[in-house]
Amino acid sequence: MTGSPRLPPVARAIVDGDRRALARTISAVENGDPRVAGIVRSLYPRTGRTPVIGLTGPLGVGKSSLLSVLIGQLRARGKTVGVVAVDPSSPYSGGSVLGDRIRLERKANDDGVFFRSMASRGEAGGIAASTREVARLLDAAGFDVVFVETVGSGQVDVAIRGVATTSVVILVPHLGDEVQTLKAGLFEIADVFCVNKADLPGADLAAKDLSELVALGAARDGWAPPIVPTSTTTPSGIEELWTAIDAHEQFLDSTGQRTQHERARLSAEIAERVKDRMGREVAERLTRDPELRRLLDRVVARTLDPATAAEELFRTHYAPK
């Protein structure tokens, strides 16, 4: 990049396609190593160009299998693919429970696919704070498409909206009451609906029900989510699914909404980072600051309720003067 600041050696290696440097940097980000901050910061101007496709939906809908077939099709088209697969965290180590399993069928020596399994760290929807940074690293590394596959916690998987440019909600026939599942929030975040395992009985009915729901709801920002039946055993519908995803990406560009959505995501991220940092600071001060310890003592003694204590703390220590 002409006129751009000189990149640190590790950042330059990532841009130049060094997958080991990328993997080490991702590990540092996931582990909260402060030494990686400069690398991440230097690469940020090179991000924002790659579509980030979120795959979400309840457990057992076949997200990993579908992703595997999608990757195969994109590689056949010559596109490079980065994948962040968010797994449940171990309650003991905090590490990824499923991270050691082989989730995607791919050629061992295919440098066009980079796969990283990450722990959810207990975050709602399985999206840990580091997931955003890892997706950006894959963007800066020059991948044509980045996928983020979530834990599959169903009703709270709406967090993918804060990461993905296009969110694909995956359901299957006979999942249960699809209407209730969608009411929980998945309907509001879907840019594309996928009825997977469409070779099973009931797939047509599930797709019809979804179509009726979409027709009843107002199109979000002028976009009505398409419903795409797919099967990974046939396979079928994979090309149509990617066509629907690509159509949404083109819609974002043609309407100017890509920038609007990016502003909303970044605004929420900044607010979340400030909230998390202030929360950690307040928690520490409540244990070591004599004045705040006395405030906590009053709450423990039931002479002051937590909401009033929080308001008092904010007013006296954090509110703008």
What this model shows, in words?
This protein is an alpha/beta fold and 321 residues long. It has three domains: 1-46, no CATH class; 47-255, P-loop containing nucleotide triphosphate hydrolases (Rossmann fold), CATH 3.40.50; 264-318, no CATH class. 47% of the residues lie in helices and 12% in strands. The protein has helices at residues 9-15, 19-30, 37-43, 63-76, 129-140, 178-189, 203-216, 238-255, 257-288, 290-300, 306-318; strands spanning 52-56, 81-87, 113-119, 145-149, 166-171, 192-195, 227-229. It has a seven-stranded parallel β-sheet, sandwiched between helices. The protein is globular and about 65 Å long. The two termini are 43 Å apart. Residues 89-103 have low confidence and may be disordered.
Could you outline the blueprint of secondary structure elements for this entry?
Layout: H1 9-15, H2 19-30, H3 37-43, E1 52-56, H4 63-76, E2 81-87, E3 113-119, H5 129-140, E4 145-149, E5 166-171, H6 178-189, E6 192-195, H7 203-216, E7 227-229, H8 238-255, H9 257-288, H10 290-300, H11 306-318
Parallel strand pairs: 1-4, 1-5, 2-3, 2-4, 5-6, 6-7
